Amino acid sequence: MNALNPAYGWTPIVYSAVLFAPTPAAAEFTTVNGIIRIPESEEFAWTHTTGSSSPASTRVLISDSVNGRMFNTPVILGAVAGSGQLPHYLPEVYVFPRGSIIDLTASATLNDGSLSVSLALHGFSRRAQPWGRV
Amino acid sequence: MALVISGKRRYYVYSFLSETFLTVPGGLQSELDIDTAAPFFITSLTARDVSSGLFFQLTDLGQKRDFFLNNTPAETVIGTGSRPFFFSEPHRIAAGSRMRAFLSGGVSFDICLNGYHERA
User: With the C-alpha atoms ordered A56, A58, A64, A69, is the resulting torsion angle positive or negative?
Assistant: First the structure.
């Protein structure tokens, strides 16, 4: 068993990112990218997500440099992320191997405002374990 | 929620996008394909918001199985990111199956099938 508690070396952590694109001169489809880098010395077990976006129709795509994307297509942020009061819990813990790069892409059609996404991936991290231990 | 790493399961989300819904008799319909590598287990349904007064149906075309009785109001079986609608048990969808979503109306909706792929 590999339970996410201090007995197994896991400690709580939050990785967050803010993506922003300024208001375009004319209405247009806008995309902005960002990354979250997991340290080489640690693995990250992602358990729940919070975030917000403007406009509300913003879609996001999250992918992992090791295992690929985790959505079949960019999805509305409000359907896969919750708020601080009501986080969105993943149905299964997702473990990013040490040194992973999490690619984030946000897109929306902007009319008269900027694109802004705040995203926080909550979970647990731990130092890489010696071979043979969990 | 059990905070235990299973090792066999991998979080994944399939989404029907507003733009992929086509007009059919009685409403709008969209389809998507489940990955052929592993079965998918749907644990919950979410959307940003769903207008009240719409009916929703989700069908596993591989098993020819409807998830709900006819005329199920969408807001009773689709939640949001903060408050997902959870099935009492995950629904197993065979690898490579085709899924269909039907809504009796509406103009803007993205419906997410949240769950996990499970390797043998």
Answer: positive
Q: How far apart are the C-alpha atoms of A110 and A57, rounded to whole Å? A: 10
Model pLDDT for residues A18-65, shown as the tens digit of each residue = 999 998 888 889 999 999 999 999 999 999 999 999 999 999 999 998
Element (H, E) at A91: strand A88-96
Partners of residue A11 on adjacent β-strands: A125
> For residues A92 and A66, what is the distance between their CA atoms, to the nearest angstrom?
18
Q: Is the pTM of this model over 0.80?
A: yes
Beta bridge partners of residue A61, listed in sequence order: A105
Among candidate residues B101, B8, B119, the one with its CA nearest the CA of residue B47: B101
Residue A80: predicted pLDDT: 96
Rounded to whole angstroms, the Cα distance separating A132 from B12 reads 28
- Chain B (19-38) residues lying within 8 Å, Cβ to Cβ, of chain A: 32
Chain A positions with Cβ closer than 8 Å to B: 1-5, 45-47, 49, 56-57, 59, 67, 70-83, 85-95, 124
CB count in 10 Å sphere of residue A112: 8
Decide: residue A44, CB within 10 A, 0-12 exposed, 13-18 middle, 19+ buried.
buried
Q: pLDDT-based confidence at A2, cuts 50/70/90?
A: low
Residue B118's DSSP bridge partners are: B9
